[in-house]
Amino acid sequence: MTTNGKGGFIAAALGRCPVCGQGKLFKSYLKVAETCKVCATDFKAADTGDGPVVFVILIAGFAACAGLLISFLAWNWSPATLLAVWPAFAVILSLILMPILKGLMVAAQIRHKIRD
């Protein structure tokens, strides 16, 4: 079974092979597997570099800064509360987004046949 179009990107965002949608894309938290155990797709040439990190910083930073400003201006939270909530929120959001965006970038490289 081959996933085409959006299905490959959805599978990769969920940590599965963007080609078959069944095998694991990662062998650990952010380490991309060498090949898919189901369809034998080679992931070795898929090198995302710092691409996903840039998007994670932009998304998590914007969300944390917007939340900080809203909670400070609208709800008048104390500085101690702001410093307890929003950095933790940014870290947790970054940890959630990183494998999703890395999977999407690997899927884009495979779909467009990008090699080193």
Automatic annotation (TrEMBL):
Membrane-spanning intervals of the chain: 53-77, 83-105
InterPro entries the UniProt entry points to: DUF983
Entry keywords, A to Z: Membrane, Transmembrane, Transmembrane helix
Any Pfam family: DUF983
The protein's name in its UniProt record: DUF983 domain-containing protein
Organism (species): Asticcacaulis biprosthecium C19
Taxonomic lineage from the root: Bacteria, Pseudomonadati, Pseudomonadota, Alphaproteobacteria, Caulobacterales
